[in-house]
Amino acid sequence: MNATRFQVGYYFETLSLLPNTWAETSRDYIEGREDLVVNNYAQYCSIVRTGIGKSRLVLGGEVDALWDAKPAKADDPINWVELKTAATPLSDRDILKYERKLLKFWIQSFLLGVPKIIVGFRSKDGILQSLEQLETNQIPKLVKQKGKGSWDGNLCINFTATFLEFHADVAIEGLKSTITGDGVWRVQKKEKATVIEVFKIEESGHGDILSQDFFMWRSNLGQEHSP
């Protein structure tokens, strides 16, 4: 069943997206999308510098599409859009389940600066039944005022800020004192777990998160600015 849900999500993306703007895409391509082979490889990556509480972070993540086109100026915000699928809620239990799924939708798009999410509601057989357009920054308000209030966006942000600040305290051997030197580390909380784990997964390198060209450029830049 999980594999089927993933396939439905990828197919929804294939039907929804174009490789270029509407005006620059051929009519044959637009009308032939139902016959396209589903491919989840094509994607964008949003890299943002942000802050949560007193902590400064550089985050990167996959984003599905642009709403229109990339801005002409590199410093202008990009009008990203994320595509999601969910089962059509048929009961109070389904509504609560969807509301909890909204938490994942919101936090992913919020952190990466994605302003808009399109949700495709499907039947149990994977048939698209309806669409909903969500503004990312309005999701917590929607859950609080019109939903069952199963989560609070401010509480999520405050918890994350406290966690990062807690682990930044060298006196308690947190992230800054624990994560030192070379290598790749992971911060992980398993589903239903009551603890957050911090552990090393690679003894050296940067896990291909950074390209070697960027790593060398940044190293040389640091040497040029050193006294």
Summarize the entry for a quick read:
The chain is 37% helix and 24% strand. It is of the alpha+beta class. The strands form three sheets. A four-stranded mixed beta sheet has the order 3-4-5-6.
Characterise the protein shown here.
There is one protein chain. By secondary structure, this protein is of the alpha+beta class. 37% of the residues lie in helices and 24% in strands. It has 7 helices and 8 strands; from the N terminus they run ααββββαββαααββα. The protein has helices at residues 2-16, 27-31, 92-112, 139-146, 153-168, 175-178, 212-225, and strands at 44-52, 55-63, 65-66, 80-87, 116-122, 128-135, 184-188, 197-202.
Number of strands: 8
The DSSP helix count reads 7
Q: Based on the structure, what is the oligomeric state of the protein chains?
A: single chain
Poorly predicted regions are: 169-174
**Whole-angstrom Rg:** 21 Å
Shape: globular
pLDDT averaged over residues: 84
| Order of neighbouring strands in the sheet with most strands | 3-4-5-6
Q: What fraction strand?
A: 15-25%
Main β-sheet, in a few words? 4 strands, mixed
- Secondary-structure element order, as H and E? HHEEEEHEEHHHEEH
Structural class: alpha+beta
How far is it from the N-terminal to the C-terminal residue, by CA? 59 Å
The helix content is: 25-40%
